[in-house]
UniProtKB/TrEMBL annotation:
CDD domains: V_HD-PTP_like (cd09234). This is PTN23 phosphatase. Pfam families: ALIX_LYPXL_bnd, BRO1. It is found in: Cytoplasm; Endosome. InterPro entries: ALIX_V_dom, BRO1_dom, BRO1_sf. The gene is Ptpn23. Keywords: Coiled coil, Cytoplasm, Endosome. It comes from Anseranas semipalmata (Magpie goose). PANTHER family: PCD6 INTERACTING PROTEIN-RELATED, TYROSINE-PROTEIN PHOSPHATASE NON-RECEPTOR TYPE 23. Residues 414-433, 642-694 are annotated as: Disordered. GO terms for cellular component: endosome. It comes from the Eukaryota. Residues 1-332 form the BRO1 domain.
């Protein structure tokens, strides 16, 4: 009576659970199922049609209680604050999976699927709202919202079923319209947050297309929302303000600032839903929920003891089978590990048919910067020009110093002081000494920088060809990537190997499936009811008969295990033929990866090259200014030193004049050998003596 007139609160849920559990205990002892001795008529009213439905089956009573438990949970969930992601789907799921669907139309598979997905969808909505309030990461929020869409799509499919439509009548159209509106709305929320994630990752083209898609889906939701309450309309208007503002801002920024290509939405990875809500579990034998078993005394202890013995027989059977399976699995795992064959990558021919995404990204980036190579070449040319100017200035300074040193040495020899010791030049003047010191310092700096400059030019020459390639047509980039050349025989070898690897995986999957079926059969195998009415002397015979139900699945497992030897032998033969092809493919893949990495490295080196080129230009511009000043200083110092040497020569000529001529017509005097070496300036000195200045 309490379960039939249940209060609309959580105490009512507890009452329904307890009643459901006690019904489970009762039906396992008393034959109250369909067409059994103690079956009684049970009547309930269908929720949609209002008709009274009667069945003589205790399971119908359990099914109706479960339905009401799910319905009551959904009512309480609608009244509660939207902070809990636990949901009413558990009762409907248990009802769908453990009871017949023929009791009444409101318990049909489609109606239960509809209820389950409506409950899960609304629970996921609660979690979505909580995640947004907690400022969770955009990608996570997008996945949670995408899962809301998935749940409502499943619900919509159930609503579109003809049986569901005829049962629900007019409300089917209203529900379908509301569910479709929610599908579009939460798809818009998902793409809004995917756009926010693209914004965080600075993928401005993706941001635009996600916001645009969110806007399109929201417009569809608004169309479907006609006739909905004002609260819904207000929420849609608010969402339109948010998404519309985001889209307009993103499009404007991309058009005027970033200029990124806007990809097509179908080229982007779809948002995979994250099912994070959980259905409240239903366990009819949980004493914490159902309370003590009020029919516990109805099963004799002998039946319990016999049930335990039967459980041990089942466990022994499972241990024997699992020992064989584990032994074969160990052999298979060791064999596959030694082969190092991955069915997904045994031939990687597909990767050669397209440009990898990372390279496409670099090509796209360069396509909006067409002057990349030109700027780099110009920068390096400017650097080379400044470098050459500095080198010319320093060479001129060095030449001036060497010339001055040579003139000074000749002067010393003329004056009779003799040549300086080997490798010891005459001491320069203070000005020239300072120039020489500074010149040496600049030469040292220049030589060190020259090495860096050379390395920079080498790096530029290494990368500039790759940058030109990345800036060019995609066909050229694709042509530059290595690709394997396989003969028809090679392709046949590959296909044969892949076929056998598929067989290996099918064998694994079948083995796991059979093992799972066996475990489920053993778990569900409860013969307590039979044991209660079986004579003790007949127990062993009953066990043998009951265990025969496992013979068929054991045969399938034996066949699966026996096939392993033949499959592995075929795989060994195929692998031997595959060895040469594998080596060739590995070499091409290595070259392909190296080429891709080299091209990516060239793209990533561009900014560094530009930066270092600018630094080099700044450095040499500064050094050029200093060298130019030093050159002027060197010229001035050399002129001063030359003037000083002229004065010394004039004094020497006054002290030691040349001999007077005795012939009436004297011949022209030649320069003394010592003066010959001093150049044309010293050649004028004898004329001073002819004027009587001696």
């Amino acid at each position: 009576q309490s379960a039939v007139n249940v209060p609309r609160d959580f105490e009512g849920c507890s009452t329904l659970r307890k009643y459901f559990g006690q019904l489970h205990y009762l039906q396992s002892r008393i034959p109250m199922g369909a067409e059994q001795e103690a079956a009684v008529p049970i009547a309930w009213t269908e929720i949609f049609s209002g008709k009274t439905v009667t069945h003589e089956d205790i399971k119908y009573e359990q099914a109706c209680i479960l339905y009401n438990l799910g319905a009551l949970h959904s009512m309480l969930g609608a009244m509660d604050k939207r902070v809990s992601e636990e949901c009413a789907a558990g009762a409907f799921t248990y009802l769908r999976d453990h009871f017949p669907h023929s009791y009444s139309v409101d318990m049909s598979h489609q109606i239960l699927n509809l209820n389950i997905n409506l409950m899960l969808g609304q629970a996921q909505e609660c979690l979505l709202e909580k995640s947004m309030l907690d400022n969770r990461k955009s990608f996570l929020v997008a996945r949670i919202s995408a899962q809301v869409v998935d749940y409502y799509k499943e619900a919509c499919r159930a609503l579109e079923n003809s049986e569901t439509a005829s049962l629900l009548g007019k409300i089917q159209k209203d529900w379908k319209k509301l569910v479709q509106m929610k599908i579009y709305y939460f798809a818009a929320v998902a793409h809004l947050h995917m756009g926010k994630q693209a914004e965080e990752q600075q993928k401005f083209g993706e941001r635009v297309i996600y916001f645009q898609s969110a806007l399109d889906k929201l417009n569809e939701a608004i169309k479907l929302a006609k006739g909905q309450p004002e609260t819904v309309q207000e929420a849609l208007r608010f969402t339109m303000d948010v998404i519309g503002g985001k889209y307009n801002s993103a499009k404007k920024d991309n058009d005027f600032i970033y200029h990124e290509a806007v990809p097509a939405l179908d080229t982007l990875q779809s948002v995979k839903g994250a099912p994070l809500v959980k259905a409240l579990p239903v366990n009819p034998t949980d004493p914490a929920v159902t309370g003590p078993d009020i029919f516990a005394k109805l099963v004799p202890m002998a039946a319990h003891e016999a049930s335990s013995l039967y459980s041990e027989e089942k466990a022994k059977l499972l241990r024997d089978v699992m020992a064989k399976i584990e032994a074969k699995n160990e052999v298979l795992d060791q064999f596959m590990d030694s082969m190092q064959l991955d069915p997904e990558t045994v031939d990687n021919l597909d990767m050669y048919s397209h440009i990898p995404p990372i390279l496409m990204e670099k090509c796209a980036a360069l396509s909006v910067r067409p002057d990349t190579v030109k700027n780099l070449v110009q920068s390096m040319q400017v650097l080379s020009g400044v470098f050459t100017d500095v080198e010319a200035s320093l060479k001129e300074i060095r030449d001036l110093l060497e010339e001055d040193e040579a003139q000074e040495q000749k002067l010393q020899e003329l004056l009779g002081k003799g040549p300086p010791p080997q490798g010891s030049p005459p001491p320069p003047s203070a000005g020239l000494a300072e120039v020489s010191k500074e010149c040496s310092k600049y030469m040292e700096v220049h030589e060190k920088a020259s090495f860096t400059n050379t390395e920079l030019h080498k790096a530029m020459n290494l990368h500039i060809g790759n940058l030109r390639l990345l800036s060019g047509p995609l066909e050229q980039v694709r042509a530059a990537l290595p690709s394997p050349t396989l003969t028809e025989d090679d392709k046949q070898v590959l296909q044969n190997l892949k076929r056998i690897l598929v067989k290996v995986q099918e064998m694994r999957d079948q083995r796991m499936s059979l093992e799972q079926q066996l475990r489920e059969m053993i778990q569900k195998d409860d013969i307590t009811t039979s044991l209660v009415t079986t004579d003790r002397s007949e127990m062993k015979k009953l066990f043998e008969e009951q265990l025969k139900k496992y013979d068929q699945i054991k045969v399938y497992l034996e066949q699966n295990l026996a096939a392993q030897e033949n499959i592995l032998k075929a795989l060994t033969d195929a692998n031997v033929k595959y060895a040469a092809v594998r080596k060739a493919l590995a070499e091409v893949e290595h070259k392909w990866n190296t080429t891709v990495q080299t091209l990516v490295a060239s793209y990533e080196a561009y900014e560094d090259l530009m930066k270092k080129s600018q630094e080099g230009k700044d450095f040499y511009t500064d050094l050029e200014g200093k060298a130019a000043k030093l050159l002027e200083k060197a010229r001035a110092a050399c002129q001063a030193a030359e003037a000083n040497r002229q004065q010394i020569l004039e004094k020497e000529m006054k002290k030691h004049p040349p001999p007077r001529p005795t012939a009436p017509k004297p011949a022209l005097q030649k320069k003394p050998p010592e003066l010959e070496a001093l150049g044309p300036e010293a050649g004028d000195l004898p004329q001073l003596g002819s004027l009587g200045l001696a």
